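Think of the structure tokens as a kind of shorthand, similar to the way a musician reads notation: each symbol stands for something richer, in this case the local conformation of the backbone. In the example below we present two proteins back to back. Begin with the first one, reading the sequence and then the tokens, and try to describe in your own words what changes along the chain.
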Amino acid sequence: MADSAKKDYGWNQDMPMSLLEKIREDLKTSMLNKDIEVKNTMRLIMAEFPKLTVPITLESGKKTTRLKTPEEISNDDIIGVIQGLIKAERIVLEVKNEETSEYLQILESYLPKMANREEIIAWIKENIDFSEYKNKMQAMGTIMKHFGKMADGKMVNQILREWD
């Protein structure tokens, strides 16, 4: 993504639009600008949307699912889709003995800035009272609920294990 024209692509949580709106806008822009790599990446992300479902119970009592409508698709849903695509691409790159790809860089530009170790520790100090839990690891749910997809669960787990 070294091309200076591609700097307009990507998303962050400070933008006045949802991630879904930004992906749709960038798909249109990439088609107009003939940015094939960006266009294909946006289409791959959108192709994953049918995996986003809502559980429902039919009148007969049978449990099933239905697709989420565009209004129901949250930023966290899309971030999860993008993280899955990134994980798959990293496996492919590892097999090919490559460090990165344009596709991976485009995907990563749509992820929010991850919370770093210091931010997580500071939030825990301010908001978590470990006396409320039988075991400090039980606080993990509360911490992950606050940070959502912006914190690495492995890092939070490690922080809690090291906590005094």
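Once you have a description of the first chain, move to the second and do the same.
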Amino acid sequence: MTDLQETTPEEAAAKAGVLIESLPWLKRFRDQIVVIKYGGNAMVSEELQDAFAEDIAYLRFVGVKPVVVHGGGPQISRMLDRLSIPSEFKGGYRVTSTEAISVVRMVLTGQINPQLVAKINAHGPLAVGLSGEDAGLFGGRRRGVVVDGHEEDLGFVGDVVHVDPAHVLDQLEAGRIPVVSSIAPDLDNAGQSLNVNADAAAASLAAALPASKLIVLTDVAGLYADWPNRDSLVSSLTSSELRALMPKLESGMIPKMQACLDAVEAGVRSAAIIDGRQPHSVLVEIFTERGIGTEVVAG
């Protein structure tokens, strides 16, 4: 006879309480599309990678339709260093040369994407890897950045200006979890790839699907109204309140909060930034009353 650890009535009641707390959110999000932007420090730790894969599989098994969009800044930097290709940043954007865009494409689509798909598929044949270059999913245009009043060239860096979600919707209809790498073909230069910001790409895809919620994983607890005062963490705010705050934000937070703002203003019901360093933060955000991080809603 197998020796099982006995669960006390109190422990059993606590577990039941957690499950019951999730019931309203299971009702709300069942059959709904949720776009999750995955990247940064949440990618670096093996433990956090495994926890994220479990979260995504869990969402699928309880009837939510997750879509993952990923970047890969730390891995790209490591590969460029290994190949002795210089890394330069202007205005928070990586300057992407002809050599660098080949590395970006290789790391995102050839390394990170299949690794993440494999981790999710450890829980069942659910995930499928896609690139923003597949079936016209993303279309991009090159962009520069203004630094100290001057326009600076960024090389093969672009914005997502067109989204055709048909391929992603087909995968969702088939019961699969699309995992999308943030590379886009250049609409003005056939055959050329562009490095696009994964936060912005996730927001564009969330709006096009349309998704019920956008979640952006980051490496802070949420949005601080008065950084570095940790008591100024904002748990929720409206899109108009966020727009008023944008000029005061730290440069590293601006792309993530801009993605949330763009998604909500395009019709996504809510968007949130959460701390990807916390295991299972995706489940906490979706299935608990208080959530985690900072949520943006229309208003």
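Compare your description with these statements about the second chain. The chain is about 40% helix and 25% strand.
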